[in-house]
Amino acid sequence: MGILKKMTCTQESTYNGWQQFTLENDQGMVVQFLDYGGIITSIQVPDRNGKLENVVLGFEQVSDYSHNTNYLGALVGPVAGRIAQAAFEINGQTYSLEKNEANHHLHGGSNGFHQVIWQAAPFETAQTVGVRLTHRHPAGLDGHPGNLDVAVTYTLDQNNAFTITYEAVSDQDTVVALTNHSYFNLSGNLQDTVHQHQVTINSEKFIELDADLIPTGQVLPVAGTPFDFQQGHYLADGIAAAHEQNVTVGNGYDHYFLFRDPAFQAQVLVTEKQSGRTMTIETNQPGMVMYTANALTEGMPLAGGTSKNYLGVCFETQASPASLELDTIPSVKLAAGERYEKKTVFTFGNL
Ligand code: FUC
């Protein structure tokens, strides 16, 4: 086709022997990640003037990821989010997991996918470069039933789209909800907090939380609340809102939004006027947690600045573990032999 192909995938050894991969396309967009935790350490995309800057939170020192309590950039599983009372039931049997946040289980606990070393296999096609990450979560490791084989693929294309595909299969009925925990900040190199990020979400309902951030069992309509992003609004509106649900999570958002239609499509649009950057999220996940970093550890040395609340926003596309108690929403259950196949595409552009 006469296309001069310059897309590259390079690999280097970092702290502790962790491998860092760098994907780069012809526009100069760069995505970097580790085999450790599948952690995305940087995403560089152009502003409206073509200036490449980093749009995710990442540590200044790679070694700091060994104590990544805020899950910066991490691949989260087997079940992302909170499992109430760290227990769930399948086929009449109760399975108990580690209680790593009060009485609850959060983000896979200490055997979570965010701190395992994934097997990494780089690949390239005519118009993409990527790395396929694989991992087996063995039966009996932490209370989950069955061996779970997981493959997560990170792919960059020529149109500034970064795709994450998630595949999993278990030999017993189990629970799975995979996501990525990148904190986005489209201002570039942490120039600003995310207050002025304008977000549009195809969602009419969200899940109410209690003070432990555990679902109450109520699915609430967004209409007439700061949770109504259907026409788009600034994150600042909810950070400052007096709505009981914004206040409960520490002023902001840490909530699961159900998408109106879970078929693969653009579900989220994020724009940042100052830089002119935009990000569209397409997914076949049924919803997402939007977390505005209300409780981000302050004072951590990050690439480009120091951490503080509201410095990033996570869009954790996934099914919700709240489905273990609520049978009206899409389930995290995966039957033995069933194929879990999810895809989320983050496409960057300019206003
Ligand atoms: C998000 C939130 C949690 C937690 C974690 C680091 O997924 O739902 O509240 O703070 O990230």
Report on this model:
- The protein has two helices and 30 strands.
- It is mainly beta.
- It has a single domain, classed as Beta-galactosidase, Chain A, domain 5 (Distorted Sandwich), CATH 2.70.98.
- The strands form eight sheets. Strands 11-12-13-14-30-24-23-18-21 form a nine-stranded antiparallel β-sheet. A six-stranded antiparallel β-sheet has the order 17-28-25-22-19-20. A five-stranded antiparallel β-sheet has the order 1-2-3-4-5, with no helix packed on it.
- The protein is globular.
- It binds alpha-L-fucopyranose.
- Alpha-L-fucopyranose binds next to strand 25.
Structure characteristics:
mainly beta; 9-stranded antiparallel β-sheet; 2 helices; single chain; 6-stranded antiparallel β-sheet; 351 residues; Beta-galactosidase, Chain A, domain 5; binds alpha-L-fucopyranose
